[in-house]
Amino acid sequence: MPTPQPPARLTHRVQAGPGGAMTVEVGVITGDLTVSTTDLGTHAEITIQYTSADDWYHLQGSPAPCRRRA
C-alpha cells in the first residue's frame, strides 16, 4: 500500500493592497504578508501571516472550492 503524500502547499510573499486582507481570527491585516495555499483535493485552504511572524490566520472564505484541470 502506498504511503499517502502530504497536501501540496504553495507559499508566496505579497504586499497587501488598500483594505488589506480579511482574516477569520483577527479581522483585516495589512502590510508585508505571506500567503499559503494548501491543496485539499476539492478545496484549497488559504492562510496568511505577517511575514516572519509565527501566527497564521485563515483568509475569509477559506477553504475555497477549486476545480481540477482535465
Give a short summary of the structure.
The protein has strands at residues 9-15, 21-23, 27-29, 32-39, 43-50, 57-58, 64-65. It is an all-beta fold.
N-C termini distance: 26 Å
Give the proportion of residues in helices: under 10%
Strand content: over 45%
> Which regions contain 5 or more consecutive residues with pLDDT less than 50?
none
Number of discrete helical segments:
0
Topology, number of strands: 7
Tell me, briefly, the overall form.
Answer: elongated
The largest sheet, given as strand count, sense and whether it forms a barrel, is:
5 strands, antiparallel
Order of helices and strands: EEEEEEE
Average pLDDT metric: 90
Category from helices, strands and their pairing: mainly beta
Radius of gyration: 14 Å
Number of domains: 1
If you had to describe this structure to a student in words, what would you say it looks like?
With 70 residues, this protein is an all-beta fold. It has one domain. The chain is 0% helix and 47% strand. The chain has no helices and seven strands. The strands form two sheets. Strands 1, 4, 5, 6 and 7 form a five-stranded antiparallel sheet that branches. It has a two-stranded antiparallel ribbon with strand order 2-3. The mean pLDDT is 90.
What's the structural blueprint in terms of helices and strands?
Blueprint: E1 9-15, E2 21-23, E3 27-29, E4 32-39, E5 43-50, E6 57-58, E7 64-65
Antiparallel strand pairs: 1-4, 2-3, 4-5, 5-6, 5-7
Keywords:
elongated, mainly beta, five-stranded antiparallel beta sheet, two-stranded antiparallel ribbon
